[in-house]
Specification:
Layout lengths: L2 H16 L19 H25 L16 H14 L2 H9 L2 H4 L8 H12 L10
Helix pairs in contact: 1-3, 2-3, 2-4, 2-6
Length: 139
Amino acid sequence: MTIRSATVAAGLALAVLLGTSMAYAETTYDVKAIPLDDEGLRALDQKHLRLARKAGTVCVHMAPGGVVRRGSAPVALDGCNISQLDHLVAEENNPALSAYHQAIRPGERYDQNRSWLYWRTVRSQLLANNPELSAPAGK
């Protein structure tokens, strides 16, 4: 068994243990729960990034052989990071955070080193895919 497959197996075992599943990524979300103002969206993105970093830290310490990465080295996207972040977001019980988590493209969703301006990309995508969000409140 390779280190990567062992880490994936550990992540999937953790998901089962925590009662989460990989199906979490396929859930629907309410885009109206996501604040589209600069301050609200930036705060939501910062909270999500903190949880992504926490998930990465947990997974690094669970790695076989006690491998510890230092600095801003990327953490491998594997079953551990995915299940751990999904669990942490669900545990927050915050509809806006859950919706934001689902609105982020998977490639960036689990990236603890994504740009601190990524929330702007998410807002642009949400407005492009949901024209009703940019409609005036009176209509």
